[in-house]
Amino acid sequence: MRQRPLWFSPLLLSLSISAGLTLAAPLPVPLSDLFPTPTQTKTAIVINKVLERYHYRKFALDRAFAQAVLAQYLKVLDPNRSFFLARDVERFQTGARQLDEQLRRGELDIAFDIFRVYRMRVDERVTYALRLLDGPFDFTTAETFAFESDKTPWARDTAELDERWRKRVKYDVLSLKLADKSDAEIRERLRRRYEGLARRIRQFRAEDVFQTFMGAYTQTIEPHTSYMSPTTSEDFDISMKLSLEGIGAVLRSDNEHTVVQSTVPGGPARESGQIQPGDRILGVAQGLDGAMEDVVGWRLEDVVNKIRGPKGSVVRLQIQPKATGSAKPVREVTLVRNEIKLEDQAAKSYLISDLAEAPGLKIGLIEVPAFYRDFEAEGAGAADFRSTTRDVRQLIHELVLRGIDGLVIDLRGNGGGSLNEATALTGLFIDTGPVVQVKDAFGKVEVEADRDPGVAYEGPLAVLVDRESASASEIFAAAIQDYGRGLIIGEPTFGKGTVQTLIDLNRYMPNERANLGRLRLTMAEFFRISGGSTQLRGVEPDIRFPTAQFVNEHGERALPNALPWTQITSAKFVRVGEVRPELLNQLTQRSAARIAKDPGFRMLVERSRLAREAEEQKEISLRESDRRAEDQRRNQRFKNEQERFLRTRGLKPVDEDADQVDEEALDAQRKAIARIEAEEAARILADSILLQRSGTAKTRAALRD
After folding, report:
1. DSSP codes, 575-643
2. Is 679 helix (H, G, I), strand (E, B) or coil?
3. Between the N and C ends of the chain, which has fewer C-beta atoms within 10 Å?
4. Which residues contact 57 (CB under 8 A, 6 or more apart)?
5. Which residues are designated catalytic?
6. Is residue 550 domain-resident?
7. In this structure, what DSSP letter does residue 290 have?
8. Could you give the C-alpha distances from 383 to 357, 366, 374, 387, in angstroms and in order?
9. Which residues have a Cβ under 8 Å from the Cβ of 71 and sit 6 or more positions away?
10. Is 462 within 8 Å of 407 (Cβ atoms)?
11. Bias category Basic and acidic residues: which stretches (predicted)?
């Protein structure tokens, strides 16, 4: 069963997990230290000026905006309204009536006042939760636990908050009980979790409070803008320098949980096949036999420090998969930290030549997991440095020699990378011309274009995308679609159409000796050559897969204060092809008819449906028998569909959570599942080739007649 957000997590910045040192736990910070410093006042003033002048979204620091900042700050601290009382919030709102003027002057007293109250409320709630843990729990009574949110009314008094926490602690206990933990283990684990929450909040320094508040400020403008304190800036530099070592995962905070945002191609996390975007990390252990440490409620940077470690060392993660409803959804994944080499991220190809619908046709598929470029080798003057475009060009050459009739470029899960590579890769399929437009905060538009004459492949082309295809992937797919060069197949893409840059705030106060930190600033937006942005909407496929119905609240569309979709004037370009509406209708109908009978797609749709059900669930039973029955029902639904699909492929289902796993059989199972959509994309392209050949033949016959 899906764990819902319950706790606090202040750090909104995503961090790469890479090699590094685990930091010693700091001592509690006295409340008397939690007041703004003169340096923070100066920093706030500089941030105001930089944001107002350079941020892509123009905004005014007026009273309405300041109140939105306050609301966001309270949401960051207490997203489920589990700590503050209504009277606390009323006092905060009264004290923040002049917040716009206070922010202009860099006055931060209200932010620190709120945090001091928050810290006291956390101590009160943890004390109450620990007292509840000492008592009995009755899981036979018919009652439910409602998942709170920022829409839940603030508790009127302590008694109302006590009742919410009674059910919350009971929910936590039942969730671990359903995972077959013993009563003693459950109580000890939750005791450590609750005590750890209070301990970490007591360790917040003034710098942490300032970053949290300024994070709420920047998030009120737009989700990709954030402030990095001097300490966070230093950690960021370390992670960037070592970003190709570790487990290969980018993490983010989702209230109390650490969530996998993406995995790096070639990294241990992705190679394991057991960690997917959206999965939650519940625990971390060192080595093969180290104790599993519960990390629910931890700050993101603390979880990062636990997962970091030297190359070759072992880390074990307790993972709760996003897309299952299993009665035992939590699994333990063992990873060996490793260097992520460029060749591990490299594009790969394979051939499909056994399509029953198109005998004799050969469709080549090239998987492009990232838009990579070996800048270090290029800077050193190496003539043969690795890049996406170079590798794909070679793969195309090899596939053409094998006599392919069509080509599919698979961009599923590709979160982007080098803009130069997205432009150059597009150039393999068009002669010359614009690829993407970039508009900055001052309205200036620059055009990135392919200026290299000639093409590497002129034949029928399709591009396969999904909800995780982002940024550079969207630029490439949009250009192929705008030129009419190929079919776009799959799901609407992520919708990340903005450009960020890092700004050192000390450059605006060159005589300031203290480090002011940095600002990650959204300063430009990508636009298609046809004029529309890739922001928010992403790229809409020409032919949608049925899983697309579950994408509405995913990616940029799910982020608060995301920049809206907009458009500018089209660039000057000449379409090189056209997909006739009648052909598109035929392809869509044929694909839909196949998919309706395809057990693989039934499995994929069921997995997406289960994830959606869990996301939309508003409350859950606290009666053990009801929970077990519901968990078993959901688990069986997915299990039945997966087994039905695997049998059609002649594969015996492999239980990934079993003590002894046949790794070879498991790899075959994962590959079969990964290729469900790719094979249908190949069938669609084959249909297109045959239909167009048929149409051409009929036209020639008519001309002869």
Report:
1. ------HHHHHHHHHHHHHHHHH-HHHHHHHHHHHHHHHHHH--EEE--HHHHHHHHHHHHHHHHHHHH
2. helix
3. C
4. 221, 222, 522, 563
5. 471, 482, 496
6. yes
7. P
8. 44, 24, 11, 11
9. none
10. yes
11. 616-646
Same domain? For 467 and 497 the reply is yes
The confidence score (pLDDT) of residue 459 equals: 96
The residue length of the chain stands at 705
> In the chain, what's the furthest Cα-to-Cα distance?
95
Q: Check pLDDT > 60 for residue 463.
A: yes
Residues 257 and 158 in one domain: no
Closest C-alpha among 412, 328, 323 to residue 604: 323
Question: Radius of gyration (Cα) for the chain, nearest Å?
Answer: 27
Statement to judge: residues 330 and 366 lie in one domain: no
Mode of pairing for the β-strands spanning 487-490 and 15-16: unpaired
Give dist(CA 508, CA 521) in Å, integer: 15
**pTM for the full predicted model:** 0.85
Q: Which domain holds residue 438?
A: 342-578
How many CB atoms are closer than 10 A to CB 141?
A: 9
Residues 461 and 501 in one domain: yes
Q: Give me the residue label for tokens 């945090």.
A: 115
Domain contains 1: no
- d(CA 473, CA 372) in angstroms, rounded, equals 12
Q: Are 279 and 320 in contact (CB under 8 A)?
A: yes
Three-point CA angle 509, 514, 516, nearest 5°: 65
Of 339, 368, 392, the residue that ends a domain is 339
Give the torsion sign (CA, 415, 421, 422, 427): negative
263 neighbors 415 (Cβ within 8 angstroms): no
For residues 484 and 578, is the Cβ–Cβ distance under 8 A? yes
Spatial separation of the C-alpha atoms in residues 30 and 206, rounded to whole Å: 10
Residue type, 263: T
pLDDT at 1 over 50: no
Question: Is the pLDDT assigned to residue 464 strictly greater than 50?
Answer: yes
Structure tokens at 690: 């045959």
Structure tokens at 460: 């029928």
Relative to beta strand 406-410, strand 433-440 is unpaired
The number of C-alpha atoms within 13 Å of 287 and in the hemisphere containing its C-beta is 3
User: How would DSSP label each residue in 234-277?
Assistant: HHHHHHHHTTTEES-EEEEEETTEEEEEEE-TTSHHHHHS---T
Select from 518, 564, 523 the least CA-distant residue to 214.
518
**CB count, 10 Å around CB of 562?**
19
Same domain? 551 vs 512? yes
The domain boundary residue, chosen from 544, 578, 612: 578
Does residue 389 sit in the same domain as residue 327?
no
Q: In degrees, to the nearest 5, what angle opens at C-alpha 293 toward C-alphas 290 and 296?
A: 160
Do residues 50 and 183 share a domain?
yes
**Which CATH number covers residue 427?**
3.90.226.10
Could you tell me if 280 and 213 lie in one domain? no
By CB atoms closer than 10 A (0-12, 13-18, 19+), residue 582 is: exposed
Instruction: Report yes or no on 597 lying in a domain.
Output: no
Q: From the CB of residue 94, how many other CB atoms can be counted at a distance below 10 Å?
A: 8
Half-sphere exposure of 220 (CA within 13 A, CB side): 25
CATH of the domain at 288: 2.30.42.10
pLDDT (tens digit per residue) in 382-406: 888 889 999 999 999 999 999 999 9
Q: What digits encode the pLDDT tens for the residues 129-187?
A: 999 999 999 999 999 999 878 889 999 999 999 999 999 999 999 999 998 889 999 99
Structural domain includes residue 412:
yes
